[in-house]
Specification:
Chain lengths: ~550, ~90
């Protein structure tokens, strides 16, 4: 490559970034905003597996001031799994509502102690303040939100620190809060990756003398876990009796949705180079694994692919939650359409995603309507699992991409057009979605290995209307997780459910968002609460957050 | 092995979106030639499931799960650290 003077290179880079950020004609567009967080996973030349898997992020309102805040998980020293330096601190940033974020980690008590990987937000004690579950390598944490800006580590009291008697310490990449038995209390599903020990893990060479991260086949599978909420601040491990434990895997993500609309929340888990799992809730928190029968065990190739993060919501507005997940290059970002009879069809090819995503490697997919046109789009953080030393073989660092739903689950890919090349390609990992500046357009926060986090402020031309619903359960869990919302506007219906589990290792816990296109109101809003209560609202004005409390009777 | 791919392609033209369209004979032949392909077992299992032959379906799905435990060697080369083959 011809040498270019640094000053010229910098100028060209700035012009390139400016050009991409100024492209306001794209149907979806984001502007980059920095935030003072750098993900440090303790990368070493030995290439220990957790180093490449870090990077969860959550968007939620920790102090109930109406502004969405940001929480990042962070790594630790890879040999000791201890946060031996402030550079490994987890971080909480408070949003002032104007796009400014203040680091409040210390006062909140959320710096953490171990190698933290994923995060799940949920108000497990129904006190009106959202709590934090942090999944990590050989140790998880549950932080109770005290309601005064501080959190208390209640892991031990909750019973979430008991090592697995068969598998030993587990490596959790994240989790999902979900009320599996509809008792009004959020239960905790923990996604576990694989069996790992720094002293015994295999070493793998990309070339003689050059180590790189090993293929998952060299590690043993581990079971996911389900903890039932006792309602007194403690949890009971029901992994075995619920049927979850009988299906070990190499879990990378969990999406929750009632896919067969039977009133019980189901769980889809992506596995790395293994078949996926679909845990169908038979009622009362008893599950059967039906991925093969339902047609979601393997993607269209029929091969074992690198299942990464996942999102599980209705993407074609037919009322049935669909499944999107990310994988590596030549594996596509698969899309399963829910056929409504307990089965799914692989529509990766038909949706255009095969052609668009085959060259890409991704981690965190989130389904949301970024242009408020009434069709949910798909934002995918991109980057390869291998180290930078493998860059001569694959494209390790990549830009993020938003796949715009042009209607009925047909997609176009927007990368530079969407402003997402305003930052250099990186090894992006987790992502969370929420309206950070209250302008009705969904923003995205993305993490990247050994790089600054990225806040992508949605500056799509604001022609379309929107509405968000902040649910408050009374008989159901307070967050309303599992509530199914049907919205009719301009004669068209669309659907979403309250679920904070989305993407890779991350949590998007803002209000449930709908784009309304040209409609200034929703004609009908129908909320089916987990309790079974059906609530209807009519002629609801747009462009605002609507707080809805569940009827008590 | 290209012949196996041709057989699978012939038997599974629209299998991803409609398992009922899977044609049994070429997929069976593909499995006979290369029993280590999860895609072939998966397609056949899905066909049996749609035809209500659940025991046959479960048998094919079980083979897929078994294959998940032993994957083909990737481009990377494993070097057991404990054997001292690892360069510092």
């Amino acid at each position: 490559m011809k040498w270019v003077p640094p000053a010229v290179a910098a100028l060209l880079g700035a012009l390139w970034a400016l050009a991409s950020s100024q492209n306001q004609t794209a149907p979806i567009h984001f502007a980059y905003q920095p935030i003072d967080f750098r993900l440090d996973s303790s990368e070493t030349p030995q290439r220990h597996a957790p180093e490449t898997m870090a990077g969860g992020v959550a968007i939620f309102d920790y102090n109930n001031d109406g502004h969405l805040d940001i929480f990042f998980t962070n790594g630790a020293d890879i040999r000791t799994l201890k946060k031996t330096s402030p550079k490994y601190s987890d971080r909480l940033f408070e949003n002032d509502g104007k796009g400014h974020f203040k680091d409040v980690t210390e006062q909140a008590g959320l710096a953490g102690t171990g190698f933290d990987n994923g995060v799940a937000i949920g108000d497990y004690d129904n006190d009106g303040y959202q709590d934090i579950f942090v999944g990590g390598v050989h140790g998880n944490r549950l932080y109770h939100n005290n309601g005064d800006g501080t959190f208390t580590d209640v892991t031990h009291k909750a019973g979430l620190d008991i090592p697995d008697s068969q598998y030993g310490p587990l490596w959790s990449v994240g989790g999902a809060w979900v009320d599996v038995n509809n008792d009004g209390l959020l239960d905790l599903f923990v996604v576990n990756y694989l069996a790992w020990d720094v002293n015994t893990e295999p070493a793998c060479e990309a070339a003689p003398g050059q180590l790189d991260y090993c293929h998952p086949k060299f590690y043993k599978a581990t079971p996911n876990q389900l903890f039932l909420n006792n309602g007194d601040g403690t949890f009971r491990d029901v992994s075995a009796e619920s049927g979850i434990r009988a299906h070990p895997g190499k879990g990378m993500g969990a999406g929750i949705a009632d896919y067969d609309l039977d009133g019980w929340m189901d769980i889809f888990v992506t596995n790395d180079k293994l078949h996926n799992s679909l845990f169908h809730n038979k009622g009362g928190g008893k599950f059967e694994e039906v991925a093969f029968e339902a047609g979601v065990a393997l993607a269209e190739s029929g091969q074992f692919i690198s299942g990464m993060g996942v999102d599980f919501r209705d993407i074609d507005n037919d009322g049935y939650p669909d499944i999107a997940f990310a994988a590596l290059e030549n594996e596509t970002f698969p899309l399963f359409r829910n056929l409504g009879k307990g089965g799914f069809a692989d529509i990766t090819e038909a949706s255009g995603m095969t052609r668009l995503s085959t060259p890409m490697a991704g981690y965190s997919p989130t389904i949301a309507d970024f242009d408020n046109d009434g069709w949910k789009d798909l934002f995918v953080t991109r980057g390869h699992v291998q180290s930078l030393g493998y860059a001569s073989h694959v494209q390790v660092e990549q830009p993020n991409t938003v796949f715009r739903n042009v209607g009925g689950a047909k997609f176009q890919a927007l990368t530079a057009e969407a402003g997402l090349t305003a930052q250099p390609p990186r090894r992006h990992r987790g992502s969370a979605v929420g309206d950070l500046n209250g302008d009705g357009r969904l923003d995205v926060v993305v993490t990247a290995l050994s790089a600054p986090a990225e806040v992508w402020i949605n500056d799509t031309p604001a022609a379309n209307h929107w509405i968000e619903f902040q649910l408050e359960g009374t008989r159901s869990n307070r967050d309303g997780i599992g509530a199914r919302i049907k919205l009719v506007a301009g004669g068209a219906a669309q659907y979403n459910q309250v679920s904070f589990a989305a993407g890779y290792a991350s949590s998007s816990a803002g209000p449930t968002h709908f784009g309304l296109g040209p409609n200034k109101s929703a004609d009908l809003v129908e909320i089916r609460w987990p309790s079974g209560i059906l609530q209807q609202l009519r002629n609801v004005a747009a462009d605002r957050v609507v707080k809805v409390q569940e009827p008590r009777n | 092995m290209r012949f196996v791919l041709v057989l699978l392609a012939a038997g599974c033209l629209r299998a991803a979106t409609d398992p009922k369209t899977t044609v049994e004979s070429p997929v069976r032949e593909a499995i006979r030639l290369d029993p280590s392909r999860p895609d072939a077992h998966y397609r056949l299992g899905r066909l049996w499931h749609f035809l209500g032959r659940e025991k046959d379906a479960e048998a094919e799905f079980a083979k897929v799960k078994e294959l998940g435990k032993e994957q083909p060697q990737p481009p990377l080369i494993a070097v057991p650290e404990q054997n001292g083959e690892l360069k510092p």
